[in-house]
Amino acid sequence: MYAILLADDRHPNYHAVDFFRVYSDYVLEQLEEKLELETEPVFLSQFEEKRELLSRTEIILSNWGMPEMSYDTVRTYLPRVKAVFYAGGVVSVFGAPFYQMGARIYCTGETNAVPASEYTLAQILLATKGCQRGTRGYRDPESYAAARAETTRRSGNYQSSVGIIGVGRVGRRLARLLQGFDLKVYGNDPFLAPAKAKELGITMVELNELFSICDVVSCHLPEWPNLKGMIGYAQLSAMHPYATFINASQALPVDQEEMIRALRECPTKTAILDSTDPMPLPQGHPLLKMPNVFVTPHIAGSFGGELERMGENVVEAVDDYLHDRPSRHEVKREQHLDSENS
After folding, report:
1. Cis preceding linkage at 278, omega within 30
2. Which of 36, 45, 84, 282 has the maximal Cβ count within 10 Å?
């Protein structure tokens, strides 16, 4: 089957170095054993000049930077496409026209949940110790005592309360990781079955209650339009004075202006953000200047050598497809529609 590497080199999430960490020489060699593969990537801007090549394409391999195309574009340039393999998080942004074409879509989002949950676990364990605040405050002998006091004001890692908003791929992995610690875990997710919550050791509560009782609240909501701004001033102002809010998922569900307002009103509260709107933030943005806000450069997901694991899972998914086996990586059309309509 004829296959191409596909990307939009003007897409804000496309980075050539990361693309070829996923599709490394090792991964490409394995794929070439299974497919007739064009190893030079095809970019959206090249569609007209590479029309003949695209017309023969049956398999698409991509990752962050996958082009967002209309049904007419896919039908015109990729009339024979049968399957898309996406080394990324979710397929909702680009998936619809391919499902309309009858193609199957495979996604390594579960693989990407591994580093995202590990990042969040690390931030939780440090936040309950006041580590981030203490590190920022300790600059000289005079500041030592005040910086150390950050720990005494925090809850520590024994019987502290951790809240997970959105118990999907990352949230579930995080809950399992938290089972290894003496922590109380709460959750909020209307789609999580009670039996699954019990298995994960999660006590499910209403959103506002979760913010009011937890020492750390971690957001793992998807970028669905109906979730826009669902976390705002009411929730963040309900957090106790030394609580921490973590967002290692998407910026959309958080009302950023209301978050800034709540954090300014109570500067002992802390926010750790791996996603912002926009990203990157412009010079002088309040979130980059506030002493109780810590912004990381969108590193929670697969990064560095972790990208190679995603490539290896693409190989696994391709093998499943070619041998017509059930695959843990396949995203069925009904799952895509559920995410679009939720």
Report:
1. yes
2. 84
Q: What is the DSSP letter of 254?
A: B
Residue 50: CATH number of its domain: 3.40.50.720
Helix, coil or strand: residue 317: helix
Record the pTM. 0.84
118 in the same domain as 88: no
User: Is the same domain home to 276 and 211?
Assistant: yes
Nearest 5°: phi and psi at 10? -100, 0
Domain count, the chain: 2
Contact 67, 6 (CB under 8 A): yes
281-335 pLDDT, tens per residue? 999 999 999 999 999 999 998 888 888 899 999 999 999 999 999 999 999 987 6
Residues 92 and 181 in one domain: no
Both structure tokens of 255? 């009302």
> In this structure, are 287 and 140 located in the same domain?
yes
Range of the domain at 62: 2-107+304-341
What are the b/e assignments for 94-120, b being 16+ CB within 10 Å? bbbbbbebebbbbbbbebbbbbbbbbb
Residues 157 and 265 in one domain: yes
How many residues are recorded in the chain?
342
Q: Is 240 exposed, middle or buried (0-12, 13-18, 19+ CB in 10 A)?
A: middle
Encoding tokens for residue 237?
Answer: 């102002």
Q: Which residues pair with 202 in a beta bridge?
A: 185
Residues 216 and 331 in one domain: no
Condensed to tens digits (0 to 9), the pLDDT of residues 16-74 reads: 999 999 999 999 999 999 999 999 999 999 999 999 999 999 999 999 899 999 999 99
The CB density around residue 243, as the number of other CB atoms within 10 Å, is 26
How many helices and strands, by DSSP H and E, does the chain display?
16, 13
